[in-house]
Fold these 2 entries.
Entry 1:
Amino acid sequence: MAEPVAPRSVEFDLDRLASIDAHATVSLFEHAGYLPLPGLLPPPALEAMRAEVGRLLDHAKRRDFDMTCMGGTPRHMTTLGGLEIASTAPAVASLYRDDALLSALGRLVGMELRLADDPVERHVLNVLHRPGDTHGLHTDDYPIALVLFIESPRCETGCGHLEFFDACRPGERATKMHPPGDAYVLRADRFPHRVQPIHDGCQRTVLNFAYGAAGVPVSASPSASILYA
Ligand SMILES: O=C(O)CCC(=O)C(=O)O
Ligand SMILES: [Fe+2]
């Protein structure tokens, strides 16, 4: 009889993070509010994460509405909040609270990171899978968002890219695309951001890990409880 296959653990490439020069990233992050982390999920970790997310999808809920508290911007997406993720995919929840991850990320952004108090917001799943699906413009309650790419459209332009704006220079818009396995960190409470609508046949699946930071107040908005509860 075949041996049962032990679940492969999901491990970030923290050695890669440790090798990055933090002098450069701290000032870049302070100024630009964004830091790309290519290959944070190496191929075996991405594969294991896909399996975790596959199980989560059975529990995820379809959302189609305008978020009144964020200027009426659209939400057309399928989501799952932190409570269900913690009970269905404990590997994701333990990755979120990994001390080594928190200190490696904190070093790169120059902040002392803390777990989010709100268990709904800690780790959330966002899936864009129908034509035109979008996560409209908003800011997050917590200052730091670590967004991990599980699936991503291959279209070069105008499809599922992250767009963010500098609150001090609203005319300045940046767009970024990330292949599966990549991640980025965003100063998500200060830099308004959205995900461009996706094209027919494309899919974009991310996990967002939200963190607090020492000395930074958390803005309280009902948006997370509306989108993820
Ligand atoms: O999907 C993204 O790149 C952004 C996710 C996001 O803004 C959020 O979950 O608050
Ligand atoms: Fe966000």
Entry 2:
Amino acid sequence: MRVKCAKVLSALAAGLFFTSAGALAAEPPKEMKMYVFTSGALNLDKSLIQNGASGKVQIPVGFFLIRHPKGDVLFDCGNNDKIITNSDYWGPFIAALDPGRTPDIAIDAQLSKINVKPSDIKYLVLGHFHVDHAGNIGKFLDSTIVYQRDEIKNAFWPAPGYATFFITDDFAMLRNGVGGGMPSKYKTIELDGDLDLFGDGSIYIHRSVSHTPGSQIMVVRLPKTGTVVLTSDAVYLQENLDKNILPSVGSVYDPVGMLDAYAWVRRVRDTEKADIIYAHDPDVFKAHKHSPEFYE
Ligand SMILES: [Zn+2]
């Protein structure tokens, strides 16, 4: 009994596999592939994403497609394509974040590189609802949208001081019409915890109260590449993870939770020799293969 408890506890501590022990032993489907896409870049003060840093930094805005035999899964969906032709949509962010706005970064254009259309996506998993991660939700209303309940509640009515990076029009269309009992008009998986999306351990979504109230980190276990961790903004830069540096106060809803997220990511990295793709690390992003190349 004691041994059994210890095993369960250590699995819980690892934050992995507790939905089914079989997930650890399961082989990822051999057809699985992962693609890295770009939604352009932002130019901002580095101190925003790394407390105490100075100067400007240009950071990538990435999103990811995982092709699984049970359906295509998109993790995050970049900046809203409207800003390519309409700078008013982002209000003060156009000046403050100076985003890339060339037509090739439109999400349709990116996905078309591998002949995928937004309507092909079965699940849209959101790392969080900020402007540069959830911008194009409105193009995926045929998909099942996967998020934490705390995240969507906070996106609609953020905690004081934390409204800055949510653009309500990016996700307002999700809200059901008058008289509907369910808040969402569309198919959703509203979580309050972790989810092994296909039950085979290959796509594992981890809840993290950190950068935002309901951030999600995705662990992807590929047949040849092995484990990849997609951090969304729970970790901005590799240096932040390595040195335990938090971002500025406006970029971290729960500082202790963010340090917990760092520890969780390090644990997955160490136990599974995982590759980590940080949300906005320019060097790490550049070092990875971009679509139409892929990881298998
Ligand atoms: Zn963010």
